[in-house]
């Protein structure tokens, strides 16, 4: 058995990201799921690019503020205490618009924890 207790505020942010990302899964050594807390200011995005995954499923759970999730069909506004799930092969980009009045804080969970990301280019 193994247990880990961590103060998320003490996790160093991941460098070179467009918003503040704190990897909970890395801090506690999880291998099968990616768990990240994001603090996204107006004009910032969560991902490095509009993208999709081959196998990974993702859930964006918004803790505060509003997160916009762009898909090829529409853009969804996901508010506090709401979740947005993304299936494999589904392009998306999560961000806070420049015009927003406040930042969004979101817990993002992806499984399996694989590096299967591909940039999405609208055809």
From TrEMBL:
Q: Which InterPro entries match?
A: Cupin_2 (IPR013096), GPI/OXD (IPR051610), RmlC-like_jellyroll (IPR014710), RmlC_Cupin_sf (IPR011051)
Give the coiled coil ranges.
Answer: none
State if Signal is listed as a keyword: no
Output the Pfam families linked to this UniProt entry.
Answer: Cupin_2
Lineage top rank: taxon? Archaea
Keywords carried by this UniProt record: Metal-binding
Domain Cupin type-2, first and last residues per copy: 37-94
Q: Per the record, which residues fall in region Disordered?
A: 1-21
Q: Which GO terms describe its molecular function?
A: metal ion binding
- PANTHER family, sorted: OXALATE-BINDING PROTEIN, SLL1358 PROTEIN
Q: Which named protein is this?
A: Cupin domain-containing protein
């Amino acid at each position: 058995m193994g247990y880990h207790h961590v103060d998320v505020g003490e996790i160093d942010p991941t460098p070179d990201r467009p918003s503040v990302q704190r990897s909970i899964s890395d801090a506690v050594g999880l291998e099968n799921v990616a768990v990240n807390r994001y603090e996204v200011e107006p004009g910032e995005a969560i991902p490095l690019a509009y993208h999709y995954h081959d196998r990974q499923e993702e859930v964006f759970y918004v803790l505060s503020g509003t997160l916009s999730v762009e898909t090829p069909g529409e853009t969804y506004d996901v508010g506090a205490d709401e979740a947005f799930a993304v299936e494999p092969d589904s392009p998306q980009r999560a961000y806070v618009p420049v015009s927003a009045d406040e930042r969004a804080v979101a817990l993002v969970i992806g499984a399996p924890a694989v590096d299967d990301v591909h940039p999405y280019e609208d055809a």
